[in-house]
Amino acid sequence: MTDQSFDLLVIGAGPGGYVAAIRAAQLGLNVACVERESALGGTCLRVGCIPSKAMLESSEIYHRTQHDLAQHGIRVESAGLDLETMLARKTETVSTLTGGVAGLFKKNKITRLEGHATFESARSVRIAKSDGTSSTVTADKILIATGSKVAPLRGVEFDGEHVVTSTEALEFSEVPEHLVVIGAGAIGLEMGSVWSRLGAKVTVLEYADRILVGMDTEIAKEAHKILAKQGLEFVLGARVTGARRDGDQCVVEMDGKDPIRCDKVLCAVGRIPNTDDLGLEAAGVELDERGRITTDEHFRTSAEGIFAIGDVIAGPMLAHKAEEEGVACVEFIATGYGHVNYDAIPAIVYTAPEVAAVGRTEEELKEAGVPYRKGVFHFLGNGRARAIAQAQGRVKILAHAETDRILGAHIVGPHAGDLIAEVAVAIEFGASSEDLARACHAHPTLSEAVKEAALAVDGRALHA
């Protein structure tokens, strides 16, 4: 029996889904959002972006208290770790934000439906609740925003306690003596940094010959050097063939290398689209060879009236990418117009220092045969970076050799994730490196390093 009908039904209440629902409601649509978890916000708010950043912040404060305060003339005899309180703060942060999303749903009169959604047809969705009951809703338009899940790795035997995903790695009840991280991407480096700062020996295994695959090589190499000096141990070219619990410890096996025994293993080799048990066949929604939902430039799937955004479609698996797609998608549904500039979507790794990027890498420009000029400025020459004793890293700006239009920017350094926003806006507006260089930047600020890198594109940095 059909219980309710809506203009738009959003499946998934992660950053893409809940933002799309809010924007659609603002545009006058009668909107419902179905989410199987009791808390709204998806992986990002519940067990991903937000809790990991809370732990990164707490662990960095602890580490700096132990190692960095003396240079500021601050004497601390000892700094103790209260991991239980640290985890409780993380949990409280998550609860506050997920509750905030619920408040936004109420404010915007969005109907919240709890349960697992399965297509019965292109217009009908059955919602199964945890108590065994179910109902059916219909909608004129349906938006799939179910996000992603942890990618498995052959031979890795997860047990949720010793061999874990990033979700469980946020909940260790004590600091492991030795943590092995499989994968040197953003998640692996961030979680490895957390537990290293809190006292664990951390070994990062990476199949490739470098860390942060996909980011600019020059910046990734510098990040590697900095993180290695902080104590992270890297083993590159490591093809992991197995990881399992062995008594009270774990053993990790690799091709051509000796096994590693450790206390915990975190597998962080990426994520895959979360399209299980959605009944996509019944709706006529097609997938590509990698299990992603195929869409056109307006997020329309192969089924009329069904759209998809975020981690379930092609592109970087980033919360803010999903948000932008959600807004563009529902604006297209409501007005016929909606667009995302994928060249202006930043990516950030929240280590210390942070690593951030937007636009094209130097390797991509070379491969495409695009003529470019490069400007680099090191934070060592930045007054604010020196004053806060965080002068590691650099800013790198890439501009077209003929038009001077900014094609990409890459930063490793203090607050790189905040600094990259300026260049993302510049790319969105089609700015040149000259535009960025001519804009007055307050002194002393870290953002002056961006201005200097823009000046360096033309060989006229002032403080280098």
TrEMBL record:
Alphabetical list of PROSITE patterns matching this protein: PYRIDINE_REDOX_1 (PS00076)
Pyridine nucleotide-disulphide oxidoreductase dimerisation domain segment(s): 345-454
Active site residues according to the UniProt entry: 443 (proton acceptor)
Record's miscellaneous remark: The active site is a redox-active disulfide bond.
The keyword Nucleotide-binding is annotated on this UniProt entry: yes
Domain FAD/NAD(P)-binding: 6-326
Residue numbers binding NAD(+): 183-190, 206, 270
GO CC aspect terms: cytoplasm
Binding site for FAD: 53, 146-148, 311, 317-320
Gene Ontology biological-process entries: 2-oxoglutarate metabolic process
Record-listed E.C. numbers: 1.8.1.4
UniProt cross-references to Pfam families, sorted A to Z: Pyr_redox_2, Pyr_redox_dim
Alphabetically ordered keywords of this record: Disulfide bond, FAD, Flavoprotein, NAD, Nucleotide-binding, Oxidoreductase, Redox-active center
InterPro entries tied to this protein: Class-I_Pyr_Nuc-Dis_Oxidored (IPR050151), FAD/NAD-bd_sf (IPR036188), FAD/NAD-binding_dom (IPR023753), FAD/NAD-linked_Rdtase_dimer_sf (IPR016156), Lipoamide_DH (IPR006258), Pyr_nuc-diS_OxRdtase (IPR001100), Pyr_nucl-diS_OxRdtase_dimer (IPR004099), Pyr_OxRdtase_I_AS (IPR012999)
Necessary cofactors: FAD
GO MF, one annotated term: dihydrolipoyl dehydrogenase (NADH) activity
Disulphides: 44-49
Annotated family: Belongs to the class-I pyridine nucleotide-disulfide oxidoreductase family.
Catalysed reactions, as listed in the record: N(6)-[(R)-dihydrolipoyl]-L-lysyl-[protein] + NAD(+) = N(6)-[(R)-lipoyl]-L-lysyl-[protein] + NADH + H(+)
Protein's UniProt name: Dihydrolipoyl dehydrogenase
UniProt keyword annotation of Magnesium present: no
Cofactor descriptive note: Binds 1 FAD per subunit.
